[in-house]
Design goal:
Blueprint: E1 98-100, H1 115-124, H2 126-131, E2 157-159, H3 162-165, H4 187-197, E3 218-219, E4 232-235, E5 244-245, E6 262-263, E7 268-273, E8 276-283, H5 292-303, H6 309-312, H7 319-333, H8 337-341, E9 355-361, E10 367-372
Parallel strand pairs: 7-10
Antiparallel strand pairs: 1-2, 3-6, 4-5, 4-9, 7-8, 9-10
């Protein structure tokens, strides 16, 4: 395996799922070259007509057409303001981490009783240095010595930006990640500790809740998870056309996926997995509820979304986790160079747990995706 990391693709290039189109793959022998049928009422489920942009010719009473429009840009200096020359000087030598500006002769002078001068006098007093400051401690996290090279001449200093020094591995994960997700510990242990302490580890994403009535719904027997037997199976790296249901002694056809995912049907279903940092949200495009087709389409779209740079480099991702994800990416792509060039996808975060065996009802109206190693 090459030492070069896999390419990362901007996730904003990915489009939202098109429910009126077929699956985003070629036809298989199971369905031939055909596509899944579009929903019966594609006009349902819209959000209304968007507002039209205001016309440039329509002016408010505040700016009638007979008057001049207010000026734009920066205006000239006010006569009441005295122009003060900016202090200039050379950069001090001997320490690249500090930039010092010395006052130019005759133009600007630091008042002796100014606040920086008083602070410098306090810091240079013997009693102060013995009580609070040690001579071996640098004055800046980027300094190699204990004092500024030109502190005797000027207190107007500027150090390197602290934000730029923060390592990529120390940054928080993106806000799209689940706040209770952690790559550094077992998902089960982390969830148990969080539920006992009622703590939110990272205030990243906004509060997202599933359907409040999910405790009263029953999942479709095709996808209902059972620990005693496998009710369904789908490799999340492949097209949903390859799904198999135990309740069907035959191959799945497009009409089987027109059934509702639960009873009574819900307009929105939110899915998650302890091994997956993101939520998967399925919204119905019909006036009743989410179908199996819409559920699998939402899962497929979420799994095939390319990750961002922030997903790969943050304080939840150590080197071992990145290597495991890169191995999963290489195993999924194989020798397909075109797919390799598209970079890591979200499904690679599941690593070996890409076998979907069913769905169970979780807390707060969520639905858990039960996955296993393949």
């Amino acid at each position: 395996m090459s030492d070069e990391p896999p390419p990362l693709v901007d996730p904003y290039a990915a489009r939202h799922p098109n429910y009126n189109a077929g699956w985003p793959v070629h036809g298989t022998p199971m369905f031939g070259a055909g596509q899944f049928p579009a929903p019966a009422h594609p006009e349902w489920g819209g959000f209304g007509t968007p507002w039209a942009a205001p016309s440039a010719g329509v002016l408010t009473p505040m700016f009638p057409m007979t008057q001049q429009m207010p000026p734009t840009g920066w205006t000239g200096a006010s006569p009441a303001v005295t122009q003060v020359p900016i202090p200039t000087g050379t950069v001090a030598q001997g320490n690249d981490d500090w930039v010092h500006v010395q006052p130019a002769a005759g133009n600007w002078e630091d008042p002796k009783d100014s606040f920086p001068s008083r602070v410098a006098a306090m810091m240079s007093s013997p009693s102060r240095s013995l009580s609070r400051r040690s001579s071996s401690r640098p004055r800046s996290p980027f300094s190699t010595d204990s004092s500024s090279p030109s502190s005797r001449s000027s207190d107007l200093t500027r150090s390197r930006s602290w934000t730029s020094s923060v390592s990529e591995n120390d940054k928080r994960p993106p806000r799209e990640w689940r706040s209770d997700f952690s790559m550094s510990r077992s998902p089960r242990i982390g969830a148990a500790i969080g539920s006992l302490l009622h703590l939110s580890p990272r205030p990243r994403s906004a509060t997202r809740r599933g359907s409040l009535s999910s405790s009263k719904v029953a999942l479709n027997p095709y996808i209902r998870y059972s620990s005693s037997r496998t009710t369904m199976f789908l490799d999340l790296r492949e097209s949903p056309e390859r799904v198999r249901f135990l309740e069907l002694p035959r191959e799945v056809c497009e009409w089987d996926l027109m059934r509702y995912a639960c009873e009574p049907p819900l307009p929105v279903m939110v899915f998650y997995s302890p091994y997956f940092p993101w939520y998967v949200e399925a919204r119905t495009q019909n006036p009743v509820g989410v179908t199996l087709y819409e559920m699998f389409m939402a899962i497929w779209q979420a799994m095939m979304t390319p990750i961002s740079h922030e997903d790969y480099y943050n304080n939840e991702m150590d080197q071992e986790a990145r290597e495991d994800i890169a191995i999963a990416w290489a195993r999924r792509c194989g020798n397909n160079q075109e797919e390799r060039n598209k970079g890591i996808r979200r499904v690679d975060f599941l690593m070996e747990r890409v076998g979907l065996e069913g769905v169970t009802k979780g807390k707060d109206g969520y639905f858990e995706l039960k996955v296993k190693k393949v």
